[in-house]
Design brief:
Elements: H1 6-29
């Protein structure tokens, strides 16, 4: 037997869903003002050659 009746379970569920929605929205938009938007990326200098070999230092999958 449950301690809560049906109306209390529905109310509790509504409150938890509302809080979860607020939490997800905060997680998505937190720090989004520092995101790199299209058109704001640095354009590389055309006179500088690209790297001939990829950077292999750091983490690997092997």
């Amino acid at each position: 037997m449950s301690v809560l009746d049906a109306d209390q379970i529905v109310t509790l569920t509504e409150i938890l869903v509302t809080l979860a929605t607020i939490g997800i929205a905060w997680a998505v938009y937190y720090g989004s003002d520092r995101a790199e938007l299209p058109g704001e990326a640095r354009v590389p200098e055309p006179t500088i050659a690209d790297d001939s070999a990829p950077d292999t230092e750091g983490r690997t999958l092997t």
